[in-house]
Amino acid sequence: xxxxxxxxxxxxxxxxxxxxxxxxxxxxxxxxxxxxxxxxxxxxxxxxxxxxxxxxxxxxxxxxxxxxxxxxxxxxxxxxxxxxxxxxxxxxxxxxxxxxxxxxxxxxxxxxxxxxxxxxxxxxxxxxxxxxxx
Length: 134
Prior knowledge:
Keywords: Disulfide bond, Immunoglobulin domain, Repeat, Signal. This is Roundabout 1. It comes from Podiceps cristatus (Great crested grebe). One of its GO terms (molecular function) is axon guidance receptor activity. The structure is a single chain. The protein is mainly beta. Helix content is 0%, strand content 49%. The protein is built from no helices and 13 strands. The strands form five sheets. A four-stranded mixed sheet has the order 6-13-12-9, with no helix packed on it.
């Protein structure tokens, strides 16, 4: 761009690196100091949770995989905020498993991926079958 300015629109990860401005005229050439460009990435989902319908006392598993730079932290929440006490586990791959599903577990479960650049959320609904009407 005119005036020795460099503008990169729609940056990508492979735009990261070291850049040098080189000025030339009929008497010679001169280089600027090195400028390093780091490209960070907002969290995005590689795998989103899917809606589930399970029977009472079965297990339910919601998968969630996120990427970003820096690597995002991933957490889960239920629509009312509380995950089923003592009956859930979050595995190393961020899968949420709920054991011995009960009627009160029905609702929306949200996977939240967050890093210093941004935040992304993906939700799925758990429906519990085999519940008799009061």
